Amino acid sequence: MAADPPTDDKNCLHKLTRESVLSGEMRRLLEQLDPSVRVVPDAEHCASVAAILASRPDGGGDVWLFAYGSLIWNPMIHFVDKRIATIHGYHRRFCLWTHLGRGSAEAPGLILGLDRGGACRGLAYRVAAAQAQDELELLWRREMVTGSYCPRWVRMVTREGGRGWAIAFIINRRHPRYAGLVPEDRIVQSIARARGALGPCATYLFDTADHLRQLGIRDERLFRLRDRVAQVLERQKKSPE
After folding, report:
1. What is the structure's pLDDT at 7?
2. Is 89 exposed, middle or buried (0-12, 13-18, 19+ CB in 10 A)?
3. Which helix (H) or strand (E) holds 158?
4. Is the predicted pLDDT of residue 217 greater than 90, yes or no?
5. Domain 18-238 has CATH 3.10.490.10
6. Which of 44, 106, 135, 143 is catalytic?
7. Is 143 in the active site?
8. Which whole-number Å values give the CA distances from 64 to 68, 126, 147, 176, 186, in the listed order?
9. Which of 1, 31, 167, 170 is least buried, going by the fewest C-beta atoms within 10 A?
10. For residue 178, how many C-alpha atoms fall within 13 Å in the half-sphere facing its CB?
11. Measuring CA to CA, how many Å separate 92 from each of 68, 164, 191, 239?
């Protein structure tokens, strides 16, 4: 495996934290960076959370949330349990262009979404029923800020064999920044080049790969992307333009 070159976010002015989302800092940042982007108002988030809780198929109680990307290494929410889990019918893929958080208009980055087909192994968080509304509203303000995902109930199976329902953020194929099927070479070059308000896109990839590895979750395609991006950055480091 290629060594990860230094691409951390230490010099980044903006951090995606619980506090920055609750304070509205992230919302204001997006509006400032691109006034043309429609930022979903809090009232719509509250209504959406209420609707998905009202439609839950498991009858009530604590709420499980399925994480497949940055929510694995930056969950931000308060939870009472977490389990490695698998869902079927969707797979993890770099399919959403970002020109703000992890990219720019000149060099957009790519971030993960759950797209149709296959299966995905990730991390499921259990949120206490009494905190579910507040914690989900926080997540909506983070993940649903521009409407790029569609929250849905999905069936999950934990590593221990438990079965249940979890909320997952599925890619919104109607969103203007849905990338569709992107050739791997373009994914590699885009991620290696992109940098936005939240830092390099490569850091997003490396953090995801590293935490999947720590959890014992194999994602060979993502690991191959990690190695290829690391190699590109290492070459750039040795031979800067």
Report:
1. 44
2. middle
3. strand 149-158
4. yes
5. yes
6. 143
7. yes
8. 13, 4, 21, 29, 35
9. 1
10. 15
11. 7, 20, 16, 33
